[in-house]
């Protein structure tokens, strides 16, 4: 049973050279889409997927680069594939996702709710939930936009996926030193200040023992100019397939194409 990750995109919210920072996690042929931004429908198509190939979708927060593709997903699943997609999200996001984002486009009848379009699985923060056999996720509440719910993800107790978060070195140290996290995919704003994201200059203050297991995503279009300027950290490459279990350290960096 191998966990693989392929980023549909590795770009920031304003990037144009990269798609939105959305990921496909695959275990034993089952596909979990982590975030479904504005560019996700086209990015999936470019990788040879259609929406019916998705076994579940998980949303970290309600910015458009993370959920702006859900309207098309819901409509395609309803009108083309005739089934409801499975949606995982924090219990605190269920109401705002519908009321503040999706209702305006999806609702055609006043009786329709989020559950009219998705099989909704609300998740509790701090609890390990089985998504598929061999894939568990724990939501970790992290700071992004003041007073708005936002979550990072811990997969199978060893793979931390930050989503969008401000720099939180104490969390990262606790995850690695106390909880045994081996791999970190972290958002990285290339230019300071990191007001709503971790920025590169902050991430570079992490000890080497954390940097060497950290892979950077959610970056801007000038990312190529930062090659060789990321300390022990590496950039995640859009569309490349990584075998997460084999990413224990940079030297054991595994790739499947
Ligand atoms: O200079 C900036 C530009 C944007 N923001 C905030 O970022 C988010 C949108 O980007 P995400 O990657 O989806 O978080 C939005 O809240 C903007 O206000 C910023 O703070 N500074
Ligand atoms: Zn974002
Ligand atoms: Zn965001």
Per CATH, the superfamily is Ribonuclease Z/Hydroxyacylglutathione hydrolase-like
The percent of residues in helical segments reads 10-25%
What is the radius of gyration?
17 Å
Poorly predicted runs are none
Top-tier CATH class: Alpha Beta
Could you explain the architecture of this structure?
The chain is an alpha/beta fold and 257 residues long. It has one domain (3-249): Ribonuclease Z/Hydroxyacylglutathione hydrolase-like (Metallo-beta-lactamase, Chain A). Helix content is 23%, strand content 25%. It has eight helices and 15 strands. The chain has helices spanning 40-46, 64-67, 70-81, 91-106, 114-117, 169-177, 200-203, 208-211; strands at 3-7, 23-27, 30-34, 56-59, 86-90, 119-123, 128-132, 135-141, 151-155, 159-161, 183-187, 214-217, 234-235, 241-243, 255-256. The strands form two sheets. It has an eight-stranded mixed β-sheet. A seven-stranded mixed β-sheet has the order 7-8-9-10-11-12-13, with no helix packed on it. Strand 10, helix 6 and strand 11 (183-187) form a beta-alpha-beta unit. The longest helix has 16 residues, at 91-106. It is globular and about 55 Å long. It starts with a strand and ends with a strand. The mean pLDDT is 95. One zinc ion binds at residues 61, 63, 144, 164. GO terms for molecular function: hydrolase activity; metal ion binding. InterPro entries: Metallo-B-lactamas, RibonucZ/Hydroxyglut_hydro. Counteracts the endogenous Pycsar antiviral defense system. Phosphodiesterase that enables metal-dependent hydrolysis of host cyclic nucleotide Pycsar defense signals such as cCMP and cUMP.
